[in-house]
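Researcher: For the record, we're logging two predictions in this thread. I'll number them. Prediction 1 follows.
Model: Prediction 1, sequence and structure:
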Amino acid sequence: MTETWFWVAFATILVVMLAIDLGIVHRRAHAVSLREAAVWSGVWVALSLVFGLGVWIFLGPTKGLEFYTGYLIEKALSLDNIFVFVLIFSYFRVPQQFQHRVLFWGVLGALVMRGIFISAGVLLLETFDWIFYLFGAFLVYSGFRMARSKPEIQPSQNPFLRLLQRVLPITDAYHGARFFVPNRDEEGGRSGWCATPLLIVLVLVETTDLIFALDSIPAVFAITRDPFIVYTSNMLAVLGLRALYFLLAGVIERFRYLKFGLSAVLVLVGAKMLTENFVHVPVGASLAAIGVILGASVLLSLRRKVVPEARPVGPRLITRGPDAPATVVSLDALSPPSIAAGDGAFAEVAPDAEASLDGAGGRGVPGAVPSLGVPRSDVDERAG
């Protein structure tokens, strides 16, 4: 009965916080300041800690430790999402005032996808015991793969985007904060809809979370099989991801060794799952080991001076008015092999670009990469 009430309480918290976030604080698109990001990061972390304390009090110390360990794993792995988000936003030069909108809808999609994954995982574990060891082997493999991998932005190679292109044409510019704009024929009549590049960015964000969920959810199953603990720790970590992105996006490259710390955590958790029947590791010991590994990787990163690597930069997507005519572009033009040609195609600055950005709640700077503040001359050198 207590756990039922906890489900109700968590659902209520979820709805209220999302309503405050979208309906009040971020009702109008605007660039999220560092101070605002820090406050909201603190709010989400504090809310998670208080919720974990409630789990500890009402469901017992073991469940409380399981929640905190699962939350720490999810929060740490979400930092790897931020690396990729920075690449995506800088590649597509997403204006700052639209980034929160993308992440908000991305998080809503993540809540649904992760809920489905967790339900499927619980069902599989209850039906087939050997799936537990398969999860463990997959985590060990993912850990080694993460240490060697390097994220790339290849829109034309994304199967979800290729499917989207078959259904909807894609415009060559942002149209305010819209994901869709009407497609008009030569006579000015409406003939269907077009997807804007902002929708492309959203699909890439969702795809990124889908890939990372395949690692993070099995990792929490190594700590507990309680669906309530797995789901709540996942959701609270994901809900704080947007604020954490705006807080760390400018300095995330300093955490050079964090990726190796995360890969070590995945290998450790996977090994724990594979040896569960032979060696029992208390939850408290797992929490301490994960904290030490992550803390060491962060400290090593901060002690080493890092020269940022040049990021891939895509076409010069500009912002036109929300009701401006839609000009269709091929998905291939957004991918690295076509950047040189694409830059020429997208280089023109629409007369109403600056005005449309002002109307969306922020001052547009057509000559900069919005998420990083990189001058256009800098971008030209990299792209060329």
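Researcher: Logged. Prediction 2.
Model: Prediction 2, sequence and structure:
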Amino acid sequence: MLNPQGAINIGPLLLIFMLALLFSVVVTPMARRVAHRYSVMDAPSERKIHANPVPLLGGAAIYLAVMVSLALFGHIEYVQQTASILLGATLMSTLGVWDDKWGLRPIGKLLGQVTAASILYFSGVRVEFLHNEALNFALTVLWVVVITNALNLMDNMDGLAGGVAAVASVFFFLIATLTNQALVAPLAAVLVGACAGFLYYNFSPAYIFMGDTGSLFLGFMLAAVGIKLRFPANFDIVTWMVPVLVLGVPLFDTTLVTLSRIRRGIPISRGGKDHLSHRLVALGFTRREAVLILFLMQGALGIAALVVMQADVFEGYVVGAVVLLAALYGLYRLEQIDLTHTNPAPVGAPLPVPLSRRLSRAGRGAATGDVEAASHQEQSRPGR
């Protein structure tokens, strides 16, 4: 895809983008019918915002759009070189289908993500700036697992995960074309097209959800694309921030809910309405406005990534410091929102004990009493 001058030819990339867009638009309604036929539905619950069952498997349309577009218009040499990425992404999508239909324990998802990340590492798609094999392997696996789960967690409001993935892919595409990275550009272009086509049906009100089939697939692909980026004209100690900034919104959301649940004594794995999007709604925005605000935040971070890509060490860390300070301020302010009923517990679960109480001796004693009281209350209910 490079022309004689060494620059990327945009024509084939536009074909890949357009095919992925059209394929996603055409196949998504078919995926909806399959979801209805085989009862792959997302049922409403007190932890979710939709009131009626919604078909899943929208992610299957995204997956097929990516694979078919790359197979038809991707340069065969580059498709072969990215085979490990596509293999790991296929594993992720398969796990997602299983989880959407039958459910999958968190440990099963984690093992699948570690396996897929290991495939990347041992095929040469890896973090390299630490200059130590063990550390590079650990960071590669950590990056893939964190980003995959971060996008999975962001799939909590109509159009949010698909839109954030599309905006991030746009910036990965811009970075790849500006730096003539012919391996990354097609992957980014095809993700933009597949996500944009799916958003036609998924933006509020959602006609179909992507489910774990799509969120695990997209999260893995974005993590792999971020690893694949290279900046030989700049320093590793600066350019490591580029993919972190491009994927800043899902990383911030995951950090927010993780720290918040730890602080409130709630299991991290317990879902709820305490994500960044939900908190924006609690501040008075509509759901659509909250999603659009997060798209703008993702775009602003993408612009920061473009700046860092070309910055020297001092300038790069100034930008990074500004973003970090803004994130810390955001964490503080968002934690001031009332979160009393955002994470309803299953029947029989122990009462949450805030971190501040667990850190004190008196708090630990009270925590034991609270758990025993809750257990006694559950056992004394009629029918138990």
